[in-house]
Model the fold of this input.
Amino acid sequence: VKNRILVSACLLGQPVRYDGKAKTLLHPLIQQWQEEGRLVVICPELAGGMPVPRPPAEIGARQDGKDVLLGEARVTDTSGADVTDEFIAGARIALNVAQAQGCRFALLMEGSPSCGSQMIYDGSFSGQKHAGTGVTAALLRQNGIQVFSQNTIEDLRIAVQSAH
Ligand code: SF4
Done:
């Protein structure tokens, strides 16, 4: 299959989020792409060795996944633990899987410190978001993979179609 799509496991209904729940995306394109054999499923945080459930984590002080990859920002959770290494490990595994499976696109869960592609929490653990990318989304983009979210799935549809 050409033009595979790396997809967040929680969007496909796997209960892998920090709170032990899924964030199932009910959309006809998901079923279509699954039937076409396009979807490659991963949870970067689990791949990086984190358990379910786990304390929620944020990238520090209005920084971005790119800053984490540069060693200029850390990821911490609400217990105060530094989980930067796990987040980077998960991002690298996600990139390896995407490249091995021929994924030119990714459909990742918006808002996550790993998977967010437009908005992430701002590091204050107060529910505030700012423009930014998660660690995995940033690494995928740096390596030429186009990253979309549940909010931009129509743009992904167009990108997949025009990539034929
Ligand atoms: Fe979902 Fe990504 Fe968080 Fe895993 S790391 S639970 S796939 S948003």
In short: The chain is about 30% helix and 20% strand. The beta strands are 4-8, 39-42, 57-59, 75-77, 103-107, 119-121, 129-131, 146-148. The CA atoms of residues 81 and 150 lie 29 Å apart.
